[in-house]
Amino acid sequence: MQLTAKPSLPNALLISISTPQFKGDEATESLAELARLVTTLGFKVVGTQSQKQSSTQKVNVLGSGKLAEIAHLTGNKGMVEDEQEDDLPDEDPLTEISSEIPSDELDFACADVVVFDCDLTPSQLRNVENQLGVEVFDRTGIIIEIFSRHARTKTAKLQVEIARLNYVAPRLRETSTGDKERQMGKGAGETTLELNRRKVRDQLAELKRELVSVQDVMMDRRTQRSELFSVALIGYTNAGKSSMMRAITGSDVEGENKLFATLDTTVRALYPITQPRILVSDTVGFIKKLPHDLVASFHSTLAEAHDASLLLYVVDASDPSFRSQLEVVHKVLAEVGVEGSKKLLVLNKSDQLSTEQQKSLMDEFPDAMMTSTRNPDDISKLHKYIIGIAQEDMIEEEIVIPYTAKGIVGEIRSSMSVVKEEYEYSHIKLTVRSSAIDLERLKKRMLNL
């Protein structure tokens, strides 16, 4: 199932179901986030509606009266049945949370897509689509589509395609009466639907085999870098991680004011270059209610964070909901087993805060660092902090190198920090700072000269 934003049909109506377990500010923030997700796909949000329900398990999700009301907002393109629901009285009004166009004007800007801020079962999806006459999507479908569009590397594409097929498989339908006829020849006795489901299972098996092969290659690359000090940028989507990546590495990592503008993990060296080099990785952003299959794919996507020496938790300090977003980050990291590394909370986008707001946040988070990627002094401060943490694990030692040992000094300068150097009659005396592994490797090499 692919979601396509048509230039002539860009209008989306968002629906929130408020339940005893999901209500209030949590539901409001989630619906606002869904609006940003839908906008990222290129649709225009023309309205948002919310209704209280005891659960999201009703056959049609909403009561028949409410479906008729929404059908009016989609141009009455479907067939709304007169079926009564018993979860709540049908006359309970829809409560509008927010809308770019008032409810009484929505019929003049008919919605072409309806998106629910919850997961819908295949039967719920089918029932609501039949009654509204427009495409209907749930939150998981929207997120998977965004991931699918933004994946660039082979690993990310494989992970997202696996998640997409797992989502699509139970939602496959008979497309016409002819499809229900039994097929002859290969697969005789199977309907087209059964054949399509078997095809999806075969695709999933092949994709999983290919992903294992690609992940083995990635593991080899990480092993080669494992001796270097590494920093992983972790945070909610749109927290400014890509902008920070560009600022502290001088790289051209893409960054936009959109959710999931970047999806693939990028690794660059800290700039200005240090000796030994320090690697920085920009990982995929997090989001609330992330689909289970995509959480599973994070095991590979966040592999750089597993091996990181330092985790920078980047938050958009100007976003009032960043605390709950930070909880999501902690939860997902725990699910994929990322823990134990040194951590620093980075309160980003401080340029969008008043002096009073900055002071209040620093009082609340005294161990955090307040930054703006637009302020060179802030980037310099963060750069120095990273180097300071990296040097805590380094060993300082004096190395005596005879002039006859050609090439050794050049290798030392390229992989270690030279603190002091003295030139004697028969040798060079260098005081270096480096990791224990590199120093041990250098000593063994010196013994073989």
Automatic annotation (TrEMBL):
<feature type="coiled-coil region">
    <location>
        <begin position="190"/>
        <end position="217"/>
    </location>
</feature>
<protein>
    <recommendedName>
        <fullName>GTPase HflX</fullName>
    </recommendedName>
</protein>
<dbReference type="Pfam" id="PF16360">
    <property type="entry name" value="GTP-bdg_M"/>
</dbReference>
<comment type="similarity">
    <text>Belongs to the TRAFAC class OBG-HflX-like GTPase superfamily. HflX GTPase family.</text>
</comment>
<comment type="subunit">
    <text>Monomer. Associates with the 50S ribosomal subunit.</text>
</comment>
<keyword id="KW-0342">GTP-binding</keyword>
<feature type="binding site">
    <location>
        <begin position="348"/>
        <end position="351"/>
    </location>
    <ligand>
        <name>GTP</name>
    </ligand>
</feature>
<keyword id="KW-0479">Metal-binding</keyword>
<keyword id="KW-0963">Cytoplasm</keyword>
<keyword id="KW-0175">Coiled coil</keyword>
<feature type="binding site">
    <location>
        <begin position="372"/>
        <end position="374"/>
    </location>
    <ligand>
        <name>GTP</name>
    </ligand>
</feature>
<keyword id="KW-0460">Magnesium</keyword>
<dbReference type="GO" id="GO:0005737">
    <property type="term" value="C:cytoplasm"/>
</dbReference>
<feature type="binding site">
    <location>
        <position position="242"/>
    </location>
    <ligand>
        <name>Mg(2+)</name>
    </ligand>
</feature>
<dbReference type="GO" id="GO:0046872">
    <property type="term" value="F:metal ion binding"/>
</dbReference>
<feature type="binding site">
    <location>
        <begin position="260"/>
        <end position="264"/>
    </location>
    <ligand>
        <name>GTP</name>
    </ligand>
</feature>
<dbReference type="InterPro" id="IPR032305">
    <property type="entry name" value="GTP-bd_M"/>
</dbReference>
<dbReference type="InterPro" id="IPR042108">
    <property type="entry name" value="GTPase_HflX_N_sf"/>
</dbReference>
<dbReference type="GO" id="GO:0003924">
    <property type="term" value="F:GTPase activity"/>
</dbReference>
<dbReference type="InterPro" id="IPR027417">
    <property type="entry name" value="P-loop_NTPase"/>
</dbReference>
<feature type="binding site">
    <location>
        <position position="262"/>
    </location>
    <ligand>
        <name>Mg(2+)</name>
    </ligand>
</feature>
<dbReference type="InterPro" id="IPR025121">
    <property type="entry name" value="GTPase_HflX_N"/>
</dbReference>
<feature type="binding site">
    <location>
        <begin position="235"/>
        <end position="242"/>
    </location>
    <ligand>
        <name>GTP</name>
    </ligand>
</feature>
<dbReference type="InterPro" id="IPR030394">
    <property type="entry name" value="G_HFLX_dom"/>
</dbReference>
<dbReference type="GO" id="GO:0043022">
    <property type="term" value="F:ribosome binding"/>
</dbReference>
<keyword id="KW-0547">Nucleotide-binding</keyword>
<dbReference type="Pfam" id="PF13167">
    <property type="entry name" value="GTP-bdg_N"/>
</dbReference>
<feature type="domain" description="Hflx-type G">
    <location>
        <begin position="229"/>
        <end position="394"/>
    </location>
</feature>
<dbReference type="InterPro" id="IPR016496">
    <property type="entry name" value="GTPase_HflX"/>
</dbReference>
<dbReference type="Pfam" id="PF01926">
    <property type="entry name" value="MMR_HSR1"/>
</dbReference>
<dbReference type="GO" id="GO:0005525">
    <property type="term" value="F:GTP binding"/>
</dbReference>
<comment type="function">
    <text>GTPase that associates with the 50S ribosomal subunit and may have a role during protein synthesis or ribosome biogenesis.</text>
</comment>
<dbReference type="InterPro" id="IPR006073">
    <property type="entry name" value="GTP-bd"/>
</dbReference>
<feature type="binding site">
    <location>
        <begin position="282"/>
        <end position="285"/>
    </location>
    <ligand>
        <name>GTP</name>
    </ligand>
</feature>
